[in-house]
Specification:
With about 450 residues, the chain is an alpha/beta fold. About 45% of the residues lie in helices and about 15% in strands. The strands form two sheets. Strands 1, 2, 3, 4, 5, 6, 7, 8 and 9 form a nine-stranded mixed β-sheet that branches. The chain has a two-stranded parallel sheet with strand order 10-11. Bound molecules: adenosine-5'-triphosphate and magnesium ion (MG) (3 copies). The site of one magnesium ion (MG) has 2 residues, from loops.
């Protein structure tokens, strides 16, 4: 079944207007990337923009959770259900229906359209939400409804903005997947999988952290397409589904080594990250040493490091692009259009990192020999500065070894470098050159790694 289409059709039949996915880079300075289906509707929820003629909408929104309040970058490669890029299906009520209908629609979709077995479904509500619990009892046995606290059942887009208590639907993937407390709802394990979040949008949090009631209580829901597809295909991991296996198989072809789930985290990281890198580049974010472009660079470098672990010694990520375009170009035609340029961009960026990765990893391994529990902040800084290893990449490598990092020293060295950079550009007298130089220094630091090729020239201004 085509889950995306089934979802949008279902909500259209319930009077919702289908709305196209908004760009990944939101029109919102408080947010790094679009991280949920509600983001493009934020100003309608807050009342800044009038409610459209039809107060019901439905969408399939592309999302990136790599940085900011919702950051799943570190989860990729470790859990079966997280991606940095994913598609979120949602239905929205702008001051129209509220809890009663939202719950009834969700239950109908899950049990009748998706036809998931009722005996495997569980729901959670916020610990204070008697109303939601009472509504759910009309649909599901009382002992299948759990009350959880703010961590799991209070949803917010970011530190500020619309938010509210929520109610989530989980599927029990079987007692054989129960390995301990992490498998309970809200944990990181595999037994209970969260598939859908129904947010009862009632408040707006301001910059002081205070909650103010929204003009009209509204509904925002989010269901992860990849999770539902995996469940429908009977797979325990999203990565085993038809959305990811062709990408993993392409990596297998390129490296010529078989993939096994138990030892295949690197394949999964690559399969995840290529989607994110492709979508961000195709939508116009470029590799950079700051802001969103630096998140993009970190994701690419993390994937390249995993490729290196698999045995790649030269650029390979760009060769996977066509596979993703085959899978997703139909839904997102701009991918096919931009693919030739994006492949080039990825290849250049890969080349740049491949030039220093080997020496960086050698330095890292050398330092490991001197490390008991905490890895040296100086070496982490050198890895960053000379070899282009983003801090989170080093942290990722340390996590694999169960080691910590002296982040205080790393931060101090970063600050010192920034100060030196500031001091160095003072007073050259030429406003134009000074401006360029300042930007470069702020971006790259005084002696920092700036890659090879074009940028090396620029850094010598
Ligand atoms: P989790 O607890 O599994 O991290 P979440 O509670 O952070 O999920 P929500 O913010 O409630 O997720 O997002 C709504 C839905 O989007 C989730 O129920 C899930 O189906 C999907 N989803 C969230 N994060 C991801 C992700 N990183 N990758 C894939 N799907 C996701
Ligand atoms: Mg999460
Ligand atoms: Mg959750
Ligand atoms: Mg959730």
């Amino acid at each position: 079944m085509d889950v995306r289409e089934a979802y949008l059709k279902f909500f259209e039949s319930k009077g919702h207007t289908p709305v196209a996915s908004a760009p990944l880079v939101p029109d919102d300075a408080t947010l790094l990337f679009n991280n949920a289906g509600m983001v493009p509707f934020k100003t309608i929820f807050t009342g800044e923009v009038p409610v459209p003629e039809n107060p019901r909408a439905t969408s399939c929104q592309t999302c990136v959770r790599a940085g900011g309040k919702h950051n799943d970058l570190e989860n990729v490669g470790h859990t079966a259900r997280h991606h940095t890029f994913f598609e979120m299906l949602g239905n929205f009520s702008f001051g129209d229906y509220f809890k009663e209908e939202a719950i009834a629609y969700a239950w109908e979709f899950v049990t009748e359209v998706l036809a998931l077995p009722k005996e495997k479904l569980w729901v959670t509500v916020h610990e204070s939400d008697d109303e939601a619990e009472a509504i759910w009892q009309k649909h599901i046995a009382a002992d299948r409804i759990m009350r959880l606290g703010d961590k799991d059942n209070f949803w917010q887009m970011g530190d500020t903005g619309p938010c509210g208590p929520c109610s989530e639907i989980f599927i029990d993937q079987g007692a054989e997947h129960f390995n301990g407390p992490e498998d309970y709802m809200g944990g990181d394990g595999d037994r209970f999988l969260e598939i859908w979040n129904l947010v009862f949008m009632q408040y707006e949090r301001n910059a002081k952290g205070e909650l103010n009631p929204l003009p009209k209580p509204s509904i925002d829901t989010g269901m992860g397409l990849e999770r539902v597809v995996a469940v429908k295909e009977g797979k325990l991991s999203n990565y085993d589904s038809s959305l990811f296996m062709p990408i993993i198989n392409k990596v297998v072809d390129l490296i010529g080594k078989p993939y096994e789930y138990a030892t295949g985290a690197s394949y999964r990281v690559i399969a995840d990250h290529i989607r994110t890198v492709l979508f961000l580049l195709a939508q116009g974010t470029n590799f950079s040493n700051e802001g969103r472009g630096y998140v993009l660079r970190r994701i690419l470098r993390r994937a390249v490091r995993h490729g290196y672990l698999l045995g790649f010694t030269k650029p390979f990520m760009h060769e996977i692009v066509d596979t993703v375009v085959e899978l997703m170009g139909h839904q997102y035609p701009y991918l096919s259009e931009k693919a030739p340029v994006v492949k080039e961009q990825i290849m250049l960026e890969e080349e740049r990192f491949f030039k220093t990765i080997e020496d960086g990893i050698a330095l890292f391994s050398e330092e490991l020999k001197n490390t008991k529990d905490v890895f040296s902040g100086e070496t982490a800084f050198k890895l960053y500065d000379t070899f282009g290893f983003p801090l989170d990449l080093t942290e990722d490598m340390l996590r694999e070894k169960g080691l910590g990092l002296d982040t205080a020293t790393f931060e101090r060295l970063m600050t010192e470098q920034r100060e030196r950079a500031k001091a160095a550009w003072k007073g050259s007298g030429d406003a134009h050159v000074e401006g360029d130089f300042k930007t470069l220094l702020e971006q790259f630091g005084e002696n920092s790694f700036v890659g090879y090729g074009r940028m090396t020239g620029e850094s010598k201004i």
